[in-house]
């Protein structure tokens, strides 16, 4: 509180009354802007205090008719709001001055003053080495400490008693410059000379002998090496992507999107794990940033989008969440199937997609299935995702897998691989690129351990589990389950006696796949699917081969697909489980 009121009450009473005024001001401000906005803007990094004298800052004066509400309220009293950052200070001046005036008027009554100021930190004097020519200057500063302190006391502002020490620290920002100027300009002989030991001071490096070390250290600091995750993303570019028949459509669509980002948006890439969907998403983001100079490319996973949305709902930060995801140049979401069956998140994703489509900004999605096949997505969101370009990506074929394997070997292995080993590894691995990377890392480690190229038996000895994992276990039951899932049929119909086209064609396809992917005999296959004779399984295999040659469609209505597409979809489901 102010000094002219301090004669009738103690300093502790003044401190209590100041706190009461501040709390009353906070409550009044909270009523006008809401508890959430008050907690967001005035809870962290903001200090509110009561001062008696005028200081520099943006001061707002207003008066309300009537007598002062408080006995210590005079025209010189005011509320000071200290803000730790310039950005927050500017936003408060722009958006909150009117409610701040009203809250202060409610506290003070007739006359009030409100100041918004940037909080100034105390200057810290660095502990630098001092030479002989600097000792006298330090001694002069020490000798005049009392004079400088007296001068600082006379020129300091009057502060209410009970004011916290953290608030008074703003007034000491010029202490360093005042001390230096006072010490440099004094001519008075020091009263007591203090000796300064140069041994205690840190020594600067010898630039003649340590020049090389200093340059190396600065070079390491300036290089700022990337984290392993960032380094891995930096390697995922269009130049390092291996295209083949399994991903040719998706690669062409990505090239088109990189040339013209708004050509086909949204772009939806789907397929099993480990085939390069995330690689293409990172390549698109890299092209958007480097070629099209997009500064705000948001690249996240579906899980990250869901977590951010849940946090924003819990803290009432939906406006900030929507601005973050809608005020972007491009939006790339990986593994969008994570959003399934989350109604509120799906609704927010739908509104985000619509807002970006209206402004013509590119959107890229990746998933393990097509939009219409992902359970739990809303019909509106499926329509928005499929309105641009939907590109399937299949498991890596033999030729593409071989190219990827050779590239990994060249990057990570010191010794060359025999051609026979490359062919055997390529034949045993499925179409998952991550398994290729794991096997190459294993062989590179064995090369360092054995100091030679390991044999195939040694690779199987140490990496047998990895090679077995690469080959998914397929059984008659798993084929039956996946075919029923693909054609939306109950198991009883597939094993029953119905000869309807919508049932018998998927049954024949299941028998064909059982013969191709398992070692079961014709009799065993026919017996599994309804207790039929082995001749039924032989006829089913012959008919499916004719379908593949003629491009015949299987199924009816919305489930009708070509035989080749049906087989590819079922094999993908078998790999992904």
Structure write-up:
With 577 residues, the chain is α/β, with parallel strands linked by helices. It has five domains: 3-118, GMP Synthetase, Chain A, domain 3 (2-Layer Sandwich); 134-185, no CATH class; 231-392, Rossmann fold; 398-469; 476-576, Chromosomal Replication Initiator Protein Dnaa, Chain: A, CATH 1.10.1750.10. The chain is 54% helix and 9% strand. The strands form three sheets. The chain has a five-stranded parallel β-sheet, sandwiched between helices. The chain has a four-stranded mixed β-sheet with strand order 1-3-4-2.
Level of helix content? Answer: 40-55%
Task: Specify the overall morphology.
Answer: elongated
Total number of β-strand segments?
Answer: 11
In CATH terms, the superfamily of the largest domain is P-loop containing nucleotide triphosphate hydrolases
**What is the averaged pLDDT score?**
76
**Sheet having the most strands:** 5 strands, parallel
Share in β-strands:
5-15%
Named CATH topology of the largest domain: Rossmann fold
GO biological process, one term: regulation of DNA replication
Biased composition (Low complexity): 172-185
GO molecular function: ATP binding; DNA replication origin binding; lipid binding
Region (Disordered): 152-226
Q: What's the structural blueprint in terms of helices and strands?
A:
Layout: H1 11-33, H2 35-42, E1 46-51, E2 58-63, E3 78-83, H3 86-95, H4 97-108, E4 111-118, H5 132-143, H6 145-155, H7 165-168, H8 175-185, H9 211-223, H10 228-235, H11 248-259, E5 267-270, H12 277-290, E6 297-301, H13 302-314, H14 318-326, E7 330-334, H15 343-358, E8 363-367, H16 379-385, E9 389-392, H17 398-412, H18 419-428, H19 433-450, H20 456-469, H21 476-487, H22 491-495, H23 501-517, H24 522-528, H25 534-550, E10 553-554, E11 561-562, H26 563-576
Parallel strand pairs: 3-4, 5-8, 5-9, 6-7, 7-8
Antiparallel strand pairs: 1-3, 2-4, 10-11
Helix pairs in contact: 1-2, 1-4, 5-8, 11-12, 15-16, 17-18, 17-19, 19-20, 21-23, 21-26, 23-25, 24-25
């Amino acid at each position: 509180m102010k000094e002219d009121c301090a004669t009738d009450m103690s300093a502790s009473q003044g401190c209590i009354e100041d706190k009461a005024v501040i709390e009353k001001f906070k409550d009044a401000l909270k009523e006008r802007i809401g508890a959430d906005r008050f907690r967001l803007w005035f809870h962290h990094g903001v200090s509110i205090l009561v001062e008696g004298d005028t200081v520099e800052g943006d001061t707002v004066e207003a008066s309300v008719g009537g007598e002062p509400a408080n006995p210590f309220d005079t025209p010189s009293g005011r509320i000071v709001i200290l803000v730790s950052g310039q950005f927050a200070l500017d936003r408060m001046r722009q958006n909150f001055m009117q409610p701040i005036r009203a809250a202060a008027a409610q506290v003070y009554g007739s006359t009030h003053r409100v100041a918004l100021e940037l909080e100034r930190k105390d200057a810290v004097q660095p502990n630098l080495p001092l030479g002989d020519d600097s000792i006298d200057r330090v001694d002069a500063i020490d000798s005049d400490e009392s004079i400088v302190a007296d001068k600082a006391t006379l020129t300091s502002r009057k502060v209410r008693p009970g004011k916290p020490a953290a608030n008074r620290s703003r007034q000491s920002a010029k202490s360093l410059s005042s001390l230096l100027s006072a010490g440099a300009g004094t001519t008075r002989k020091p009263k007591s000379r203090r000796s300064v030991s140069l041994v205690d001071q840190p020594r600067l490096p010898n630039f003649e002998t340590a020049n090389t070390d200093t340059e190396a250290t600065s070079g390491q600091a300036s290089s700022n090496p990337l984290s392993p995750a960032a380094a891995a993303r930096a390697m995922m570019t269009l130049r390092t992507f291996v295209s083949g028949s399994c991903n040719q459509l998706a690669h062409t669509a990505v090239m088109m999107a990189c040339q013209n980002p708004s050509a086909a948006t949204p772009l939806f890439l789907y397929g099993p794990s480990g085939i390069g969907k995330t690689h293409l998403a990172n390549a698109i983001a890299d092209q958007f940033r480097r070629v099209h100079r997009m500064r705000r490319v948001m690249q996240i996973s579906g899980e990250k989008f869901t977590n951010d949305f849940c946090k924003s709902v819990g803290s009432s930060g939906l406006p900030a969440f929507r601005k973050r995801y809608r005020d972007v140049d491009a939006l790339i979401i990986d593994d969008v199937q994570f959003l399934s069956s989350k109604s509120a998140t799906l609704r927010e994703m739908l509104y985000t997609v619509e807002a970006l489509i209206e402004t013509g900004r590119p959107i890229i999605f990746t998933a393990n299935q097509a939009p219409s096949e992902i359970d739990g997505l809303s019909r509106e969101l499926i329509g928005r995702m499929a309105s641009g370009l939907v590109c399937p990506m299949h498991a890596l074929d033999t030729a593409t897998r071989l190219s990827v394997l050779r590239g990994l070997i060249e990057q990570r292995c010191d010794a060359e691989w025999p051609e026979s080993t490359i062919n055997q590894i390529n034949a045993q691995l499925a179409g998952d690129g991550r398994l290729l990377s794991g096997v190459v890392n294993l062989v590179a480690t064995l090369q360092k351990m054995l100091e030679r190229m390991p044999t195939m038996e040694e690779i199987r000895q140490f990496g047998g589990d990895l090679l077995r994992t690469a080959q998914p276990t397929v059984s008659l039951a798993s084929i039956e389950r996946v075919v029923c899932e693909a054609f939306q049929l109950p198991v009883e119909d597939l094993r029953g006696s119905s000869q309807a086209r919508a049932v018998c064609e998927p049954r024949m396809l299941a028998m064909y796949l059982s013969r191709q992917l398992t070692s079961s005999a014709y009799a065993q296959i026919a017996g599994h699917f309804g207790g039929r004779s082995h001749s039924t399984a032989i006829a089913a295999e012959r008919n499916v081969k004719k379908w593949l040659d003629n491009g015949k469609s299987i199924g009816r209505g919305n489930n009708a697909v070509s035989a080749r597409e049906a087989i590819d979809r079922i094999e993908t489901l078998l790999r992904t489980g």
